[in-house]
Amino acid sequence: MTTTTAAPLRLEGVSKHFGGVTAIQRFDLEVAPGEIVALVGDNGAGKSTLVKIISGLYQPSEGTIEINGEQVTFRDAADARAKGVEVVYQDLALVDLQPVYMNLFLGRELRRGPLRVLDRKEMARQTQQLVEDLDVRIPSARALLGDLSGGQRQGIAIARATHWASGLVLMDEPTAALGVAETAKVEEVILKLKSRGAAVLIVSHNLDQVFRIADRVTVLRRGTQVGTRPTAGTDKNEVIGMITGLSS
Amino acid sequence: MTTTAPARDADREAAPTGRAPRALRRPEVGAAVAALAVLVFFAVVAEQFLTPSGIGTWLNSASRFGIMAVAVAMLMIGGEFDLSAGAMTGATGLLVGVATTGYGLNVWVAVLVALVVAVAIGALNGFLVVRTGLPSFIVTLGTFFVLQGIDLALVKLVYGQVAVQGFSDVPYFDSVRPLFGGVIRVGGASISVSVLWFLAVTAVATLVLLRTRAGNWVFAVGGAQASARATGVPVARTKIGLFMTTAGAGWLVGMISLFQSSTVQSSTGVGDEFIYIICAVVGGCLLTGGYGSAVGAALGALIYGMTRQGVVYAGWDSNWLYAFLGVMLLAAVLVNNWVRQRAERLR
Q1: Domain range annotation of chain A
Q2: So which residues are the signal peptide here (chain B) (predicted)?
Q3: How high is the ipTM of this complex?
Q4: Nearest to B14 among A92, A111, A124 (CB)
């Protein structure tokens, strides 16, 4: 594990209390460029809370967050985005009635000319290029999003995160709703991100997937970080033991 | 921090897609076909219909509904309704009428005050909807009744009757009139200045919706509010702006009807809110938001204006208008429903 100060994500002693309830207790993690770290744990272990803290929806009660070596305090999701943290949401945050390219640029539309009119052509061009680079197979950047399949939609959500992320891409169960073939396709896209040097933190329930794509896995149990292991140096049984606390 | 994709030399063309099918998917196509059919129909059954004076009359009628229909369509694309839109046209007219004839306020000042009041009420509608998360249907139904009640009570209080009296005698009336109630002679036809307003409003709304970032946000907040918020679209600002726009359009139509007829009644505009929604839906707006067009709503209003006057020219009982409207609405909703199912099928 590298300890350069310019890690895309570095969490130190992050805790979150809701009233008297401790949701996250002293969580530490560093994600390097080109590294995929999986965050696993049972339902209610605090995975979503942690994702919300990193994406700016919650503020940590204690601890520090560093993005690319800079300590940050996010007031909301827009703050986190401005620092280059992109999230692939479970519900995808896509608009069905708009074309693919507009989904990629929604909220950050490209404009041209003195009248600042939308530059649809350029947005479509960049989108086309991006989906080709990531090998997300869609009919066209101008296709209506609602006409795409589940795997294609997920691919678009990930492509959007890739396009805008300068630090970290957070993924919350990116393949939960997909079939086997589509999951494989999305995993390919995630590995493409890694090869482009993105830091990826992925929440997953699917341990086979974790071992297929992640470099390291960190386990949460009831808000406590049980441990972090390189996937090459552990196995499913050990991780399951860490998640359940039964045979670790 | 990079905010754009790495540029690349090879400027690949986007995958070619057929132009004709895409054009046919525009929301206003159905309304354009229907408008043409209505035009031809009344041209055949009523000989007055295509005379210069006939055209001037139905254009004027269409313009007063069209300005509102375009604003209401934008609001509907943004996923909201404004049931106070009709009453707003009466309330702004009454405000100017009462302030000038009843209290001697300068008519120019009164017109501007009415604009400020209208936009403030629109902002309040928007604020209530955004803050409470209540359906705009209910919030604006409340505003509608408040406005109607004030309209009735205020006019009765000042005049003891239900209409503003003596408005054309107020000082400077003639200096404001050309702006809202003017008439332009084109050939043998008298075209109301409201028709120009109608064209301008439709053009500006279309440009905003299709060419600007704010317009794009309108489609996004109506189509998928949670997604829009998650991607950083200012949802509250967009929606409040839409309600203010609708109220501003209500002011414009209020001024037009006031200066065209030199009077205004306390019931002016009441009931018209549904006509606006019908025009917008006929023009291709989905009731669920996220889809529609300003041109479509303008065409919907044109259909309404043509039918309203066409029925009169054809010498029929004007009550048939409502039956026709109902049929148009149902047909439009069925077509829209089919469009939405197309958009939602698959996955």
Answers
A1: 20-94+148-244
A2: none
A3: 0.75
A4: A124
What CATH number matches the domain at A20-94+148-244, 3.40.50.300, 2.30.30.60, 3.20.20.10, 3.40.50.10770? 3.40.50.300
Token pair of B291 as six digits: 């889809």
Residue A82, CB half-sphere, CA atoms under 13 Å: how many? Answer: 10
Q: What is the dihedral of CA B65, B67, B68, B70, to 10 degrees?
A: 110
Yes or no: say if A247 and A241 are a contact pair by the CB < 8 Å rule.
yes
For each of the domains in chain B, give its residue range(s) and CATH number, in order of start. 27-346 (1.10.3470)
* pLDDT over threshold 70, residue B342: no
**DSSP state, B5?**
P
Tell which residue, B338, B290, B303, has the closest CA to residue B35: B303
Phi, psi (deg, nearest 5) at residue B190: -105, 110
The verdict on B23 touching A (C-beta cutoff 8 Å) is no
pLDDT tens, position by position, for chain A (248 residues)?
Answer: 444 457 899 999 999 999 888 999 999 999 999 999 999 999 888 898 999 899 888 999 999 999 988 899 998 878 888 888 888 877 778 998 899 999 999 988 999 988 899 999 999 999 999 888 888 888 899 998 988 888 888 889 888 888 888 778 999 888 887 788 888 888 988 898 888 888 999 998 899 999 999 999 999 999 999 999 999 999 999 999 999 988 64
| Record: contact B213-A118, CB cut-off 8 A | yes
Token pair recorded at residue A3: 């300890």
CA distance A109 to B151: 43
Q: Do A146 and B5 touch (CB under 8 A)?
A: no
Distance in angstroms (rounded) separating the CA atoms of residues B333 and B226: 25
Exposure string of B14-53, with b = 16+ CB inside 10 Å and e = fewer, is eeeeeeeeeeeeebbbbbbebbeebbeebeeebebbeeee
Distance from the B287 Cα atom to the nearest Cα atom in chain A, whole angstroms: 14
Buried b (16+ CB within 10 A) or exposed e, A156-180: bbbbbbbbbbbbbbbbbbbbebbee
Question: Is B227 in Cβ contact with A93 (below 8 Å)?
Answer: yes
CA distance B256 to chain A (A): 30
What is the C-alpha separation between B26 and A144, in angstroms, rounded? 12
Condensed to tens digits (0 to 9), the pLDDT of residues B310-319 reads: 988 988 888 8
- Supply the pLDDT for residue B18: 39
In chain B, residues with a C-beta closer than 8 Å to the C-beta of A131 are none
Contact criterion met (CB < 8 Å) for A150 and B233: no
Other beta carbons within 10 angstroms of residue B133's beta carbon come to: 7
Q: Are B12 and A132 an interchain contact pair (Cβ–Cβ within 8 Å)?
A: yes
B216 touches chain A (CB under 8 A): yes
- DSSP letter, residue B99: I
Distances (CA, A) of B79 to A90, B142, B225, B266, B305: 23, 18, 9, 30, 26
Across the interface, whether the CB atoms of B14 and A125 are under 8 A apart is answered: yes
Q: Chains A and B: how many Cβ contacts under 8 Å?
A: 113
